[in-house]
């Protein structure tokens, strides 16, 4: 049971006082809420997400006295066939395996053609403790789960199932006796509990057992109180013995900062506090209007340990629109690079790891 003080200035503890009335709140039914679509709000891209790094050209050094000049009409083939080939004649090339052939490269295989696809049913690639996400097909794509105490982001546009991803992630741990925290900046506390219950996740029971804290926070209040939150959140997680945490969504928090440098600094400090709290945390994020592979401000994907991209796939012939998930990165863990179809069912997300999109 969480100990709550009477300090009315403490936003976080005020929010947690509602946990004691969980059963009454659940009986009253979902509250009416108005959700402003974050994707409709104008947002400037962060400096990190504005551009794409491109490899710089490599200048080949050469001795002008040895290399013949090349006229405008000279063909490139003659340069490489004669001069470059001649330059390699006296170079010793190390052999690999059997003795090399006349050109020195016969036994070196630089291509990937014919390479076997990675076997994601193989044994785990490291000794790091893993935590299952609770989405079977997705867990198989990452060999049984993400490393414990990772910071994860699920990115996607509206309707791709980001919140459902978070609910399912918590329910999987709670069903196994873990404790968890759900922080929402978009919905009311009662609405979150009701939405989870409709999918078969007994969040009302978990709250009554003091194993789940559902906290709804006004994003403006959270931005103004971020300094105190960063100090209190790790303490709450430790006191509550939480192993999983979800923040839905970090995009609304990012919108509170107009200055790019301030936004980057505040979000960096906040994500660092989550990592230092010793909890496996999942944050959701809206994607950029320009591309589904980057967050709205291009910051959070660089600060997290794992990135899951949820997106719509719309064929050119306007057939059925499909949903696809892609693992953009997971630190310290091998994972599939394939894009796989998934559905949002009454029970949550279902990833078809053995299927292809088309």
Automatic annotation (TrEMBL):
It comes from the Archaea. Residues 129-358 form the KaiC domain. InterPro entries: Circ_KaiC_arc, KaiC-like_dom, KaiC_dom, P-loop_NTPase. Gene3D superfamilies: P-loop containing nucleotide triphosphate hydrolases (3.40.50.300). Keywords: ATP-binding, Nucleotide-binding. GO terms for molecular function: ATP binding. CDD domains: KaiC-like. The keyword Ligase does not apply. Residues 1-118 are annotated as: Disordered. Residues 18-35, 74-84 have a biased composition (Acidic residues). This is KaiC domain protein, AF_0351 family.
């Amino acid at each position: 049971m969480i100990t709550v003080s009477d300090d009315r200035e403490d936003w976080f503890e005020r929010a947690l006082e509602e946990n004691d009335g969980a059963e009454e709140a659940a009986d009253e039914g979902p509250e009416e809420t108005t959700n402003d679509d974050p994707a409709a709000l104008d947002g400037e891209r962060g400096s990190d997400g504005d551009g794409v790094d491109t490899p710089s050209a490599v200048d080949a050094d050469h001795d002008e006295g040895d290399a013949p000049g090349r006229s405008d009409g000279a063909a490139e083939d003659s340069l490489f066939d004669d001069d470059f080939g001649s330059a390699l004649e006296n170079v010793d090339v190390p052999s690999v395996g059997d003795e090399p052939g006349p050109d020195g490269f016969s036994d070196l295989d630089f291509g990937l053609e014919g390479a076997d696809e990675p076997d994601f049913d193989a044994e785990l690639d490291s000794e790091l403790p893993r935590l299952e996400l609770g989405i079977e097909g997705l867990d198989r794509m990452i060999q049984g789960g993400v490393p414990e105490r990772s910071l994860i982001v699920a990115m996607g546009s509206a309707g791709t199932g980001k919140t459902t991803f978070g609910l399912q992630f918590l329910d999987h741990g709670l069903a196994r006796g873990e404790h968890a925290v759900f922080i929402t900046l978009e919905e009311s506390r009662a609405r979150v509990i009701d939405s989870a219950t409709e999918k078969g996740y007994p969040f009302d029971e978990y709250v009554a057992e003091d194993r789940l804290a559902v906290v709804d926070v006004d994003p403006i209040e959270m931005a103004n109180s971020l300094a105190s939150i960063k100090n209190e959140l790790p303490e709450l997680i430790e006191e509550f013995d939480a192993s999983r945490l979800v923040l839905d969504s970090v995009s609304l928090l990012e919108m509170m900062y107009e200055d790019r440098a301030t936004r980057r600094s505040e979000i960096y400090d906040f994500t660092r506090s989550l990592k230092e709290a010793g909890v496996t945390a999942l944050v959701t994020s809206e994607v950029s209007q320009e591309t589904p592979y980057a967050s709205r401000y291009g910051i959070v994907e660089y600060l997290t340990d794992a990135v899951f991209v949820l997106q719509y796939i719309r064929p050119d012939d306007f057939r059925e629109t499909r949903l696809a998930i892609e693992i953009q990165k997971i630190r310290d863990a091998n994972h599939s690079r394939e894009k796989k179809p998934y559905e949002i069912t009454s029970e949550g997300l279902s990833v078809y790891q053995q299927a292809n999109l088309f």
